[in-house]
Amino acid sequence: MKLTFARLGNLHIAGKAIFEALEVDVVLPPPPTKRTMSLGSLHSPEFACLPLKVNIGNYLEAMEKGANTIVMVGGIGPCRVGLYGEVQRQILEGLGHDIKMVVVEPPQGRLSGVLRQLRELTGAQTITQYIKAANIGWRKLTAIDALEKLALKVRPFEESRGDVSSALNTALMLLDDADNPKDVACALEKGKTIIEVCHKKDDSDRPQIGIVGEVFMVLEPFVNCEIEKCLGEMGVVVHRSIYLSDWIMEHVVKDAFRVLRKSKTPYELAKPYLCHFVGGHGVETIASTVDYARQGLDGVIQIAPFTCMPEIIAQDLLPTVSRDLGIPVMTLVLDEHSSGTGVLTRLEAFVDLVQMSRSSRR
Amino acid sequence: MRETIGFPRALLFYYYYPAWRAFFESLGQICVVSGETTKAVIDSGIKVTVDEACLPVKAFHGHALSLSDTCDRVFVPRLVSVEKKAYICPKLMGLPDMVRQNCSGIRRILDPCIDMSRNSRAYKREVYATGRLFTGNGRKIHAARERAKQTYQAFAKLLQGGLAPIDAMTRLDLLDTPGDNGSRSSLGISTPAKAENNRPLVIGLLGHPYIIYDSFLGMNVMERLRLMGAHVVTMDMLSPQVIEQEAAKSKKRVFWTIGRKLLGAGYYFLKPGIVDGCLLMSSFACGPDAFIGEFLQQESIRSERQVPFMTITVDEHTGEAGVLTRLEAFIDISERSMLR
Questions:
Q1: What's the ipTM?
Q2: How far is the first Cα of chain A from the last one, in angstroms, to the nearest whole number?
Q3: I want to staple B264 with a disulfide (CB 3.0 to 4.6 A). Which of A15, A319, B247, B269 is the partner?
Q4: B188 within some domain
Q5: Which chain B residues touch A49 with a CB distance below 8 Å?
């Protein structure tokens, strides 16, 4: 069996570590390119959201490399991601591929189903091995988040353009190579140093922009036209509302172990504008915007895939949040036709606007 | 206190208005329905919503705005779920928030939250809370609820018997409000005459109720198909058992109520020998339909395209002539497959 899974930011580093610790052969899809996007959109429904299309592209490219089993997460709605597995299975089978699709449904308090599926995938493994795998996976995940967070902080102050991005890449490579918890900690420290040395001596005040929106679009640089890098290189300090480890803690771990209560904060923050769960990340998008406005950030950018239902609701409500709390908000709706240049132009215009409103406030 | 409650003629009005009206009338309130969808209604909706919102949601805003002057309250329910473990559509879950913020002209919004996804207790509580806005008498609310239930059952029976929602509402005398004087005849679609010697072409029509039964959004598709000599069957005319049974074929349960209905009806229509052609009418960028359409497309391919299957997508720019041409072509192909 050769296992593969869709790419999402740098999640593959942790994913690979987990499955390799369970002695499963992993074939990673190659980093997404234009070809991935074309393959994906060619075979997906036109009005499906972009993540589904990119996933399909990932799978097809991984299958070219020999993958024959796909693992992905399910869901219980109302967001469409819960049906991704079924749609994708039918698309791939329709194309004549003989592929096994393992869809891990949210445990909703019962872990037995998930464990059974994992057993099926990995062959019987001892419980210690599962714990070991989860341990290294989680450590790598939090390390990825720490490195990415640091890169966002340092990038606006880098000596020459691109320093931080290449330092981050090196750091992630070190992390990828680490294969036990001690090495992970070592790689993290080394990575942090590599990124920190890019910081030039300059503490001038920089505009601060928050990124909110749909999880995949926020986390995957390929589909958001490297928005963090673009903004950072314009000298903007970027605050990202979603980190993988937080997301997994909230939506996977707390779903598996019901004793841990899910956070109610997003609902409280979003309350005046959106009073009900709307699936996906809709409430969190509004909540993070409110939170960023209160923290005194200079602007917020929402990123959503075209036709994303929860984000459309948020997009509809964000102008009111923006007016009420006096924070500029821009929405970027992206799909397979979006071009980096188009996005860059809009970002530049937005940063100009943010800077003007900053100087007028002083 | 007697209030006028306005009901936008959009979204799930087509399924639940009879129940809503029975409930509020029993409580002594006056129910008013907005007029039929027109270009002007859509335009006023488009002005206040984001581009990305779907056409039915834009139309809903237009209808709600048209009621703002004449009504004390506009009814914008938060329809989260009408059955266990299934939702309708995320957009309906956020609808009251959207209307409240987009339509500042509307004085008061009546937005009960209807959520039966876990159990019906919260729903019952919400019904009583809504009733209590108008009366302090719990027994009266209970009676109103019972009447709503009965009316809904009578209505559902008429739908299954082959009536379009508007006709069924007219039959039950629920639409005698100003705003639909006589114009309903344009949607006056009744059960067609029994098949004569050579049977008529049978077309299975799929689509969200607020598209196919709205004469403007759905461009009178039922009437048009009938004028072309076809007998039209919609998912609402099928028995719930058939739909449930077919939808259960999906490996993963579809968690949208209407989506599952569409899927079940679609799988049924695509079986050879049931209908001569299957038509899905969908709104541009409709989230659930993107997936349901793909499931049906795959099923159609698997069954070697024995039943012609076509999707028509409508949005605010759709021209009637273009749709007409496609319908004609579809009828031609379906006829050919019938004769085969």
A1: 0.93
A2: 62
A3: B247
A4: no
A5: 287
Domain count, chain B: 2
Amino acid at B278: C
Share of chain A above pLDDT 70, in %: 99
Determine the Cα–Cα distance for residues A42 and A59; give it in Å rounded to an integer. 13
Q: Measured between alpha carbons, how far is A303 from A227 in angstroms, rounded to an integer?
A: 10
Span A2-125: which CATH code? 3.40.50
Chain-chain contact of B255 with A82 (C-beta, under 8 angstroms): yes
Asked if A205 has any chain B CB less than 8 Å from its own CB, the reply is no
Do the domains A207-362 and A2-125 match in fold? yes
Give start and end residues of each alpha helix (H) in chain A: 11-21, 34-43, 50-64, 84-94, 112-122, 127-154, 163-177, 181-196, 215-219, 227-233, 244-248, 254-256, 265-270, 282-295, 309-325, 340-361
Residue in A244, A251, A237 with CA at minimum distance from that of residue A204: A237
B69 and B164 housed in the same domain:
yes
B93 touches chain A (CB under 8 A): yes
Please tell us whether the domain made up of A207-362 is placed in CATH 3.40.50.720.
no
What is the tens place of the pLDDT at every residue in A320-349? 999 999 999 999 999 999 999 999 999 999
Is some CB atom of chain B closer than 8 A to the CB atom of A318?
Answer: no
Report CB contact under 8 Å: B288, A49.
no
Domain residue limits at B223: 197-339
Please give, rounded to a whole number of angstroms, the shortest distance from the CA of B105 to a CA of chain A.
15
pLDDT single digits (tens) B277-325: 999 999 998 999 999 999 999 999 999 889 999 999 998 887 888 899 9
